[in-house]
Predict the structure of Hydroxyethylthiazole kinase.
Amino acid sequence: MIKEEIQKQIFQAVEMVKQTNPMAGSITNTVTINFVANAQLAVGGSAAMVYLPDEAEFLAKAGKATYINVGTLLPIYEQTLPHIAKVLHQEGKPWVLDSVAVGIGYLRTKLLQQFKDYKPTIIRGNASEILALAGLWGLDGGTEVSNVRGVDSRDTVTAAKAAAVALAKWTGGAVAVSGETDLITDGSLIVYSYGGSHFMQKITGAGCSLGGVMAVYATTASPFIAAITGTAAYNLAGARAEKKVNGPGSFQVHFLDQLYEASADDIAKNPFEIKEV
């Protein structure tokens, strides 16, 4: 796939979302619900947040894509998350998994292990999370022991490349690894996306909301293009917002504004490079 073709598909994904206002429901962590919803709205999608099993099933069937984030787990999620993942898999609906803090706690480990057979359309995480998830699933490039520090990574994006490729090949979808330079792969190609801001590490929910935005784009584009588009939009908005602010509080506000104002052409032209696996 040549760069011009990827840019064309990014442009089409952004335009289609703005025109159709697709619903991508979310089960996300309690720390970032507001930011995830606002980011989905800013790019042109429709947001809906639930956590009960019956409501999650309704949302999975009614929406065009779903975002699942395992950040702050509640006991009810032991029922909700495997059930909705199974429904999404059976319905053939795209869904995004954010494997936040993989390796911490029995319930989180159990749920993430169950997701393996339901093959998420897009997997998003930092380098340590991607390495640990591949290890949990017994895939090449993974690590047996999680190296996450809360929600922070202790590993580089480059170190997670093999694990990301293995995960993408297993799911048949895409994997996005967030870092100073973001990596997105479909198992055959790797895209490195540039931009962003150092302030993104100083606010809560930059990664979580990116997962929600990827779900919005997954309603109209392939997993690989949806992941690239969401990442490009974030890198563009982050770089633009940083120029207008002096601290993380105002950055979050300006970031949402820039996400809203970014045109399809701007997002498609955000710097990236392509390499074969």
